[in-house]
Design brief:
By secondary structure, the chain is mostly helical. Helix content is 57%, strand content 1%. The chain has helices at residues 22-25, 30-50, 55-72, 80-94, 101-117, 123-130, 145-156, 167-186, 200-209, 216-229, 240-255, 270-275, 280-292, 299-305, 323-327, and strands at residues 135-136, 307-308. It has a two-stranded antiparallel sheet with strand order 1-2. The longest helix has 21 residues, at 30-50. The chain starts with 21 loop residues before the first helix and ends with a helix.
Length: 329
């Protein structure tokens, strides 16, 4: 008799025990898990930028899929690159974008080249990253930035000639499709609600209510903080409108804008009108985590520009000992 799989189709935007992840149960520390999540979402951001898709659609949706997947599946079971590619392809379909599977694979191969060489314009930072035990890189990482950039551009021009029936393309294709199916099963095939739950969708509404929607700098700054929130697992820990309000508070502080509280009751703040009372602690937590992403001397930089070694027991499909590592230059 064949084994049956029970799917959980409930819609639970905020998880009841967000700290109880599969990776944590496998003994992976919270800091290590955050590091690898940052690495995965940086790949999604790079892919979104390369393919010119909106941060409020494909990028945000892919990040939600990525984070929710890793609450069900351990980092020791599925590597970050596979999860990122599967999440991005699935987000493309959810958002109904005209981006092909071939484009997705070619884009991630381009990013793969950049990460192997640590393509960053600060040589001191690159030298520091190369000393970290969690990072893998090839011999070209020590070259000057301009030389690495030229080399990657030349190699990218040959990507279109990769044989679609060859072993390299076949491996990446199989990984993307297989991981996409794993994500769908892990999330119970219930993903239609995700695009309507992004914090970006609240930004313009809140700014209009506060009568500061004409301030383009404030709006852009708040939007950027919402983009930053996708890097973290805030989407499964807090409601989207709380993340949006925290982003606006940070943006107002950054832009030096005084938000109007004078028309409200004496003891009430503007965010209490929108979110209800009793959320000050949550807003503070969100703001602190978003500001921590600005630290240029932390693991945020390593996760964003380098290739972080996978925690998968038998190495990832594109790790330093893999066929892809030797084949893709």
């Amino acid at each position: 008799m064949s084994k049956r799989t029970t799917l959980d189709r409930r819609i639970v935007p905020v998880l009841p025990k967000p700290e109880d992840t599969a990776s944590r149960r496998d003994g992976i520390s919270a800091a290590t898990e955050r590091y690898h999540r940052l690495h995965g979402t940086s790949l999604l951001l790079d892919a979104a930028v390369a393919l010119h898709v909106s941060s409020a659609s494909c990028y945000a949706t892919s990040c939600v899929l990525f984070h929710r997947f890793y609450y069900q599946v351990s980092l020791q079971e599925v590597d970050v690159w596979s999860a990122a590619m599967g999440s991005f392809l699935l987000a493309v379909k959810i958002e109904e974008l005209t981006i092909s599977l071939k484009q997705v694979i070619a884009t991630f191969i381009h990013i793969y080249r950049q990460r192997k060489t640590i393509l960053w314009d600060d040589d001191k930072v690159v030298q520091w990253i190369m000393k970290q035990p969690s990072i893998a890189y090839d011999s070209s990482a020590a070259l000057p930035y301009a030389q690495k950039d030229t080399m990657i551009r030349e190699n990218d021009s040959h990507s279109t000639s990769i044989n679609p029936f060859g072993p390299l393309w076949k491996e990446w294709h199989e990984v993307v499709i297989e991981t996409e199916n794993k994500i769908l099963r892990a999330l119970g095939f219930t993903i239609y609600w995700i695009p309507d739950r992004h914090p970006h969708k609240f930004i313009l509404y809140v700014l209009r209510v506060l009568e500061v929607d004409s301030n383009k700098g404030l709006a852009q700054s708040a939007w950027n903080f919402c983009n930053d929130s996708c890097r973290l697992d805030l989407c499964v820990r807090f409601e989207a409108h709380l993340v949006a309000c925290a982003a606006i508070r940070l943006a107002a502080s950054e832009q030096g804008v005084m938000l109007p509280d004078s028309s409200l009751p004496t003891a009430m703040k503007w965010w209490e009108v929108l979110c209800g009372p009793g959320h000050e602690t949550e807003l503070d937590v969100i703001q602190k985590e978003l500001l921590a992403l600005k630290d240029k001397e932390s693991d945020v930089v390593m996760a964003s520009v380098a290739f972080v070694k996978s925690l998968v027991k038998n190495e990832s499909f594109n790790g330093p000992q893999s066929f892809s590592w030797e084949s893709i230059k």
